[in-house]
Each structure stands twice: as structure tokens, then as C-alpha cells.
């Protein structure tokens, strides 16, 4: 049951942060989440729902309900989340633990090493 909950938390993060991105970008968001959790399934949900870590969890109108079952993007996010948790999909971010969209310029970006750009996101790891 724990693994199912962890996969759903990871899928929600992939869906809300990257559903419009190419598959590689969705995998990247998933692996950033896993990198933050040190690839520990027990830490996935706490990482996803940590205050002010992911934009969608900070919205006043939390989209915490699951997307419609027949939403293709949601189905893809769940499938990718399972594959990431099972170790089938590897980290494509070179160890990144942070990312932001191209159109955002957060002050924290200078404190980290830029690792890769995938789709509309820029990924960073600790120096």
C-alpha cells in the first residue's frame, strides 16, 4: 500500500509540474523528486508536499484531487511514476534536485550548478 501511495504522490507531481512537457521532461521532474527523496519510497510524499517546494502544492486552490481517470496525461504520469519507482527509468538530470520553468528566474538558481535543460525546464544540482 505504501508503494501505491508513493507512486500516486510522484504521479501527481509529474502531472502538475510537467504534463505539457515531452516525456523526457516528465521523467526529469520525476527523477528530481526521487533525488530529493534519496530514492527512498517512504520519502516521496513528504518531499512532494513539503511547503513551498513545488508550485502546484502552493496554490490556494489545491488541485490535490486526482485528475479524471480518462485523462491521457494523468495515465502517462502514473505509468512514468511506476517505472521510475521500479528503477526502470534512470535520472536524466545528472543529479538535479531543483528545476524551474524558462520563464521564471528564481534567485536561488545562482546557488546551484545548472545540469541540463529539457523542454521548458532548467535543472540544477548542488555544487
Overview of the structural elements:
The chain has 127 residues and is α+β, with helices and mostly antiparallel strands. The protein has one domain (2-92). Helix content is 39%, strand content 13%. The chain contains 4 helices and 3 strands. The chain has helices at residues 2-18, 23-36, 44-48, 72-85; strands at residues 98-101, 112-118, 121-126. The chain has a 3-stranded antiparallel sheet with strand order 1-3-2. The longest helix is centred in the N-terminal third of the chain and has 17 residues, at 2-18. The radius of gyration is 14 Å and the shape is globular. 35% of the residues are buried. The mean pLDDT is 92. It comes from Candidatus Pantoea soli. InterPro entries: Cell_wall_hydrolase_SleB, SleB_dom1. GO terms for molecular function: hydrolase activity.
Amino acid at each position: 500500500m505504501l508503494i501505491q501511495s508513493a507512486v500516486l504522490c510522484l504521479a501527481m507531481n509529474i502531472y502538475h509540474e510537467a504534463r505539457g512537457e515531452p516525456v523526457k521532461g516528465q521523467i526529469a521532474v520525476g527523477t528530481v523528486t526521487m533525488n530529493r527523496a534519496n530514492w527512498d519510497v517512504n520519502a516521496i510524499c513528504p518531499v512532494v508536499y513539503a511547503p513551498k517546494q513545488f508550485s502546484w502544492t502552493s496554490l490556494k486552490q489545491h488541485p490535490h484531487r486526482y485528475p479524471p481517470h480518462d485523462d491521457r496525461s494523468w495515465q502517462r504520469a502514473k505509468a512514468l511514476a511506476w517505472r521510475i519507482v521500479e528503477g526502470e527509468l534512470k535520472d536524466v538530470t545528472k543529479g538535479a534536485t531543483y528545476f524551474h520553468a524558462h520563464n521564471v528566474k528564481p534567485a536561488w538558481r545562482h546557488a546551484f550548478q545548472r545540469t541540463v535543460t529539457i523542454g521548458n525546464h532548467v535543472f540544477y544540482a548542488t555544487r
